[in-house]
Amino acid sequence: MPTDTVQDAPQGQTLQGQPLQNAVTPERLEKISAAAYRIRHHALNMGEVQGQGYVGQALGAADMLATVYGDQLRFRAEDPHWEARDRFLLSTGHYAIGHYAALAEAGIVPVEELETYGSDDSRLPMSGMSTYTPGMEISGGSLGHGLTIAVGMALGLRYQGSSARVFNFLSDGELDEGSTWEAAMGAHHHQLGNLTAMVDINALQADGKTDTVLRTEPVTEKWESFGWYTQRVDGNDVGALLAAFDNAAAQAAAVGRPSVILCDTKVGRGVPLLEDREKAHFMRIEENEWQICREQLTAGYEGKASA
Amino acid sequence: MSTTTTTATPAKPKLKTSAMIASFADPGQKTSNAPFGHALVKAAQENDKIVGLTADLGKYTDMHIFAKAFPERFFQMGMAEQLLFGAAAGLAESGLVPFASTYSVFAARRAYDFLCLDAAEPNLNVNIVGGLPGLTTGYGPSHQATEDMAIFRGMPNLTIVDPCDSVDIEQAIPQLAASAGPTYLRLLRGNVPTVLDEYGYTFELGKAKVLRGGSDVVFISSGLMTMRALQAAKALAAHNVEVAVVHTPTIKPFDAETVLKEVNTDRLAVTLENHSVVGGLFETVASAVVTAGVGKRVVPIALPDQFLDAGALPTLHDRYGLAVDRIVAKVLAELG
Quick check: is B93 catalytic? Predict the structure, then answer.
């Protein structure tokens, strides 16, 4: 039976016994910023193949994906089913475009394969499915499922003595779903200290802005009141993300508080043309605009890098 | 003038709905207590991957037996069925073999999306244990899963088992654990009748079995209606009607071969199920018959396509035609 006792992770170590990272060094910042740039670039290329799609979300979430894949997850690119791997669950299936880019960046999916995105017989369908893609742990897409599966996975891994961590990526729209809160309660009740949720708060849903569709705020207080170790950061600030994930890693334990990182992001981030466009769930981009998007992305990244 | 006063016959006292999980065992019938719970414990002793979970209905689905035997392998998910089955899928993803229990109504109606996409699409070994299948409670439509098989039959990869008695349940559990994909068990709980031990029967997943032969009528039945079918067959013998009984506890995948062989004769063919006439055993048999091009009338004994009354279980089984007397009367009428 769960108790209220929280078992701390070993001092100065991760759940897996590695030394904790607690300094956002220029090297880490540079590495993750570069990965985020490449993820955005891949996403634009994939979007161009389709002519449209969830490019805005991928650009917004690129820094989160780059941080978790480049700095946090333990995996073996050549063996996506390695038993001791950390699990990354994409609940928000339509973010697959961003996830495929991250999988390519991680070396799990070949970069050349990305151009098959959303095409017939591709391993990279529009909505992410575990049965299609190496490194895709679950079939998301019916929103509000991911965190419930993550609870079972975290319970199952812990019961079997694994020190693997479970990361569930969800969106602020999924906070509308009751099942997300069933899972939030369950994770706290079972003291799943090996579970981290990352919520992309881009404030946009299919029918419009989140606060006009169904008001989810106050989000921080909700997660805190559900017993989670809660942090809220600028999800497009790589330094802030690294620091938040470091805090979550220090907090991680086999038995302890589940952790949530609430990430405020901007749809279309990194491409001013899209950042300024009227926000849409399914963004239309004209044929001649893709190259402009890439140029703006690269100019912004190089400008920042040289600044 | 007579001074005798006639008193009206006092009305028979009305039966009470009684407990939600009223037993459908007949008085004096041989029963076995909590066969599912004990079978799961036994299977778990041999397979350390088996875990159990429930949504605040452990005591009412016999899962408490497992929870007591293996507290570290039991997970209480609270009254949250979406979490129950999403988490069951997650446990299966991590390499375990979960049995997750709740009432059939909540599994089928409330958590369908989670079972469909999280367990069935990836073909995970998630075992759904649904209490109160069909008409096994007098609580009315909120608890009567009269259409659970109709709902679940459309789900690809899902195996559906409708056991008759404690023998079926005890033998089914290890086979459900051993089968790779998701399964749905229509649970009978509490003091469950023991019936099939007298018929030299063994449960085999995916197989129908001929329990007795008979030259005039063939019953195709599943679930507790096989018990009623056997009782009705005995009663009909007194009317010189010889009845064969074919028990088909696996509804999906369906053993059409065995069933068609028995249906495709000159005998009156009758299906018996504890389920709506829509989408259950009758339509499964009818579909097999038509697909095979067999021109044969099949008479359904099933629950009507309507929301059923609340009341005492014997009253309701009589009202909706599942009682033995009603089966006998229906067959005699069919035979003219």
Answer: no
